[in-house]
Amino acid sequence: MLRPLGKTGVKVSSVALGTMSFGGDSDEAASAAVWRAAREAGVNFIDTADVYNEGRSEEIVGRLMRGERDEIVLATKAYFPTGKGPNARGSSRYHIVRAVEASLRRLATDRIDVYYLHRFDDGTDLEESLRALDALVTSGKVLYPACSNFAAWQVAQALGIAALERFAPIVAVQPMYNLVKRTAEIELLPMAQALGVAVVPYSPTGGGLLTGKYTGGKPEHGRLVEWKMYEARYGDPAMFDIAAKFTALAGELGQHPVTLALAWVTSHPAVTSVLAGGRDVEQLAPAFAAQAVYLDPATRDRISALTPPVPPATDRNEELTR
């Protein structure tokens, strides 16, 4: 299923291939198998970043897309450290220009279709970053600027600056969004929907929480309890109870939990495409299957009811009683 990427006129698959495992958990052969499975499933939206496995992900993507570059909508990102120097990170013009040039070399391509600021840079004036992106668009090295892990007000500020300065606008945002992480619903998704900005969430299964593996409460071992980042995000025991209920509901609905987790994310009207990543084809097959699943509003509401409702965007809550 193809969906419009915001107002750009570009069509992208409702499931995008995230390649964070390429060159890490997935060697070249495994990455190639995942690539072929994604393409055979109709996936045309490919997402990577300069920091994924020290650039090896971009290098592998570059080799895999030879011969079909013009069929691919390619996204990559920059912000996090790519070297030991003090300027080898961030969203300064100094770093962004060098990061784009390095990504183009690794990807062996002449342009990046969607280029994300990987994180909001508190130490760089936002106009500085947007001016750099606009210059890269003018040069043809980047087609569409985007941002990841920005708050709604930061996206809105970026759009306002771009409109005032006549810069190329932000066309897509990439937030964390899944059944147990629904903060994006409060302001980011309504803002994006109202302003025509594409939304491409990552972590739709909650780092594996919603894959069907966790039905007996919080485990003693595994990534979600042993990896500091994932334990911080998904270590709450209540989340494992939600995961067990979600897995049971998926079985009742006749869906693989991974398929249902992604289908729930893409059923939000603001969402354009959702990132799916994994080590091998077996892991990703149910994710690709989500492209063919339609969740009616009643079923989406039933799944959503497994977690507490998100709060309103303001302290006034009369709208909840109307």
Runs in which pLDDT lies below 50 for 5 or more consecutive residues are none
In CATH's first tier, which class applies? Alpha Beta
Tally of discrete structural domains: 1
The mean pLDDT is 95
Q: In which range does the helix fraction lie? A: 25-40%
Assembly state of the chains shown: single chain
Name the overall outline. Answer: globular
Residues in β-strands, percent? 5-15%
Describe the largest sheet. Answer: 8 strands, parallel
Main-sheet strand order equals 9-8-7-6-5-4-3-10
Description of the structure:
With 322 residues, the chain is an alpha/beta fold. It has 12 helices and 10 strands. The relative contact order is 0.13. The model has no long low-confidence stretch (mean pLDDT 95).
